[in-house]
UniProtKB/TrEMBL annotation:
Keywords: ATP-binding, Cell cycle, Cell division, Cell shape, Cell wall biogenesis/degradation, Cytoplasm, Ligase, Nucleotide-binding, Peptidoglycan synthesis. ATP binds at residues 119-125. Cell wall formation. Catalyzes the addition of glutamate to the nucleotide precursor UDP-N-acetylmuramoyl-L-alanine (UMA). This is UDP-N-acetylmuramoylalanine--D-glutamate ligase. Pathway: Cell wall biogenesis; peptidoglycan biosynthesis. Pfam families: Mur_ligase_C, Mur_ligase_M, MurD-like_N. It is an enzyme of class 6 (ligase). One of its GO terms (molecular function) is UDP-N-acetylmuramoylalanine-D-glutamate ligase activity. It comes from the Bacteria. Belongs to the MurCDEF family. Residues 313-425 form the Mur ligase C-terminal domain. Its EC number is 6.3.2.9. It catalyses: UDP-N-acetyl-alpha-D-muramoyl-L-alanine + D-glutamate + ATP = UDP-N-acetyl-alpha-D-muramoyl-L-alanyl-D-glutamate + ADP + phosphate + H(+). It comes from Lacticaseibacillus baoqingensis.
Amino acid sequence: MLDIKTYQNKKVLVLGLGMSGVNAARLLNQLGALVTVNDKQKFDDNKAAQALLADGIKVITGSHPIELLDEHFELMVKNPGIPYSNPMVKRAQELQIPIITEPELAYQVSESDWIAVTGSNGKTTTTTLIGLMLNEAGHTAYDAGNIGIPASQVAQKAKANETIVAELSSFQLCGIQTLHPHIAVLTNIYEAHLDWHGDRSHYVAAKMRITMNQTPDDYFVMNWDLPEMHTLAKQSRAQIVPFSRQGAAGARAQLQDGWLCFDDEKLFLAADLQIPGTHNIENALAAIAAAKLAGVDKAAIQAVLSRFSGVKHRIQYVQTLNDRKFYNDSKATNVEAASVAIQAFKQPLVLLAGGLDRHLSMDDLIPLVQAHVRAMITFGETAPLMNAVAQKAGIPYQQTANVKTAVPLAYAASKPGDVILLSPAAASWDQFPNFEVRGDVFIDAVKALAESEEA
């Protein structure tokens, strides 16, 4: 870790905790900053705040008091999930207090090269594959960021000859200033998080911040099957490295005659991938491009792709019960991600769907549900919207309280040979703190169902 003096004796406010806030606060404290942490959760229920107070860090909990900003802070490190419309954040902007997110702080202390991955869908799978390929080839790489491992924690241990492979969300990218990946990856852009960003143009602009500090010595890996990328590429100073599943002209990583190729070198048969769906062909191509640019050899790429069976909560196989296969795709927090999952299977589906209502249309699901889904089990705030999808698709549906109660209903609606798929097409925050908890509840419910069937 670089021993920077930037924050010595500077007053810094960390707004919002979670893993990123806790690690940012501790790192800033280590760097000599005068740290204050403000989190809306009450202190008695806030173990993170209690731990930071024990470390000697000033903690204010229970609300976000705007008058706190009268204490002349020189920096705010904002939890990525807190929108810029938040009164505390707006007031900080009025006071011209710089606002960053935790990955920016991590980059400032990092000795390592960075590979950064963003996109509406496929970020985690692509990030994971790149890290595995680098390590398989004998490099030392660490996954970090939105994948669930705070970048500021990883940056403190990663050495100069090692690599940080960071998954970065649009929320995190809004708060970077100097973060400069040598290789950046943009898997795709669809409509997502518009309630947070306000409109699609702001969302796209946030994604494109991943390349804003790149130079002609860097690489920007982009999905050339999406026409929008051809225009967005002009905003980057980096060398554009396109990938394509559909044979787009100029793509360096592409699907050719069933093979995943880079610069026309055949690397791996797409049919031999352990992860289902055409979207995972795209994720593999993006990872191959980044890995090859980082010097990974063919054998390492083949070894990883031959055994990689997916990331938890992303079309994750759970188990088979009486010839029904259960899959957990809790990470499908939008219609596009759920559409990808539905199309990944050839077997008839019983679909579990529902979650936070962001007031977005679900109509794009109708033809897919009609073509692939036997029955739907709906829950959460968007249950009425999901019921309407099922009605328009002409398939049976049942509404229930939550994911846990949905599992036995889905099993009852299924037939041997079916896939029972949790792919909610909505965020989890109406009933769960995050999609991981929602997915774990689903897994536990499947296990409980299996035990009851065996009893």
